[in-house]
Design a protein that fits this description.
By secondary structure, the protein is mainly beta. Helices cover about 10% and strands about 35% of the residues. The protein has a domain of about 110 residues: Immunoglobulin-like (Sandwich), CATH 2.60.40.1090. It has a six-stranded antiparallel beta sheet with strand order 1-2-10-6-5-4, with no helix packed on it. A three-stranded antiparallel beta sheet has the order 9-3-11, with no helix packed on it.
């Protein structure tokens, strides 16, 4: 009986040892990782039509009109707006709007004073610069147009298409 009790106690001790909770030391460790994003400079542009209305060659006064260019560039991006001569022909010194072979002289300017021709920056033309206010916020530039006075031309609709280029 002594032997059986001893074996029973050993088995009981072993069973209790297995059932006993295991206490481990808890620890922590840390690391870091980088987070980044890239925003590239970007721009888009829209423009409204410039309509001079009805031209009267006998008025003796030039006919003025305006258009608005809306530039959308990433915040802080510098940009430059240039205008081409247009499909009506002519040159930067005297753009023309055409009706077939007939042409009416006009030009586009950077300010209401209409002294600086808005072009591509070559010759005697200037471009207009700005800084982006955001891709969702327009930076507006006004184009000032003027048809030269006292041009005796045949009736009709005179047109041209100007290409606006934004460099950023």
């Amino acid at each position: 009986m002594f032997c059986a009790t001893r074996i029973y106690r050993r088995r009981l001790t072993a069973a209790l040892a297995l059932a006993a909770p295991v206490f481990c030391h808890a620890g922590t460790t840390t690391t870091t990782f980088p987070v980044s994003a890239v925003i590239n400079s970007a721009c888009s542009v829209t423009a409204s039509a410039l309509s001079f209305g009805t031209y009267n060659p006998t008025s003796g006064s030039p006919l003025d009109g305006t258009s608005t260019i809306s530039v959308y560039c990433t915040v802080g991006s510098a940009y430059t707006v240039s205008l081409d001569v247009g499909t009506g022909g002519g040159a930067y010194t005297a753009r023309t709007i055409a009706n077939g072979a007939n042409a009416l002289d006009y030009n586009l300017y950077t300010s209401n004073a209409r002294t600086t021709v808005w072009g591509d920056g070559t010759g005697s033309t200037s471009t207009v610069g700005g800084t982006g206010a955001g891709l969702l916020t327009a930076s507006t530039q006004t184009v000032y147009g003027r048809v030269v006075a006292s041009q005796d031309k045949p009736p009709g609709t005179y047109t041209s298409t100007i290409t606006v280029t934004v460099t950023f």
